[in-house]
Write a structure and sequence with these properties.
CATH superfamily: LmbE-like
Radius of gyration: 16 Å
Distance between the termini: 20 Å
Oligomer: single chain
Strand content: 15-25%
CATH architecture: 3-Layer(aba) Sandwich
Length: about 220
């Protein structure tokens, strides 16, 4: 049994980026812990208290669906992590890691269009730096449809690790449905159809039916 931590900027990132992988770990009876940095809705221009309540209900529905061993949701400002002290982001991440003690971390890709995604990844890598008491040997970054593929610059998401989720694709659809208000109509990349299509394409890269793809940020193999 392994201890798995998923560290995200917003509720729904985990389902979009590695929902099938989470379900696979759940089936293996691994311990699962989640950290979210923001509520994922506070920055929306016309969001009111009803919208926030609805989003929180969706988040709780997703938590109930996975039934993780440990969860933590920080209250940093949504889509404004660039205005938060980076030291505070790192300390929040370190505290979570001390409590969850993960063997493996899944988090965002460092060159993501969404500033919260990019800074969450940076906080993870800083919090787990070699020599620290929160060092983690395995860290993988996932892609979030309608965000990661829209990033600018030369560092594009080029996966080197694939996890077979063929036996969990139907469950992943149910997981995504917990966040139904965040899903979009086809042909948007965050539609259920295109998320499944992305997993099918990633699977095809490895001659699998469905897969989720990751960029390895760290993997240490000891004797």
């Amino acid at each position: 049994m392994k201890r798995i931590a998923v560290i995200c900027a917003h509720p729904d990132d985990e389902a979009l980026g590695c929902g099938g992988t989470i379900l696979k770990h759940k089936a293996l009876k691994d311990e699962i812990a989640f950290l979210w940095m923001t509520d994922g809705i506070g920055a929306r221009l016309h969001a009111n208290q009803d919208d926030i309540k609805k989003r929180n209900q969706s988040h709780q529905k997703a938590i109930d669906f996975i039934n993780p061993d440990f969860t933590k949701c920080e209250s940093f400002s949504d889509n404004e992590l660039d205005l938060v002290s980076f030291l505070n982001l790192v300390r929040a991440t370190e505290d979570f890691i001390k409590n969850s003690n993960p063997d493996i971390i899944y988090t965002h890709f460092y060159n993501d269009l969404n500033i919260d995604h990019a800074l969450t990844c940076r906080a993870v890598m800083t919090a787990t730096r070699p020599g620290s008491n929160t060092f983690v040997k395995e860290i993988y970054s996932f892609e979030v449809p309608s965000s990661t593929e829209w990033a600018i610059g030369s560092a594009q998401f080029t996966p080197d690790t694939y996890i077979d989720i063929s036996n969990h694709i139907e469950e992943k659809k149910q997981y995504l449905d917990c966040y139904s208000d965040e899903m979009r109509e086809h042909p948007h990349p965050r539609s259920i159809e295109n998320i499944v299509a992305l997993n099918q394409m990633r699977g095809a890269h490895m001659n699998l039916k469905y897969a989720e793809a990751f960029v390895t940020l760290r993997r240490v193999i000891n004797d």
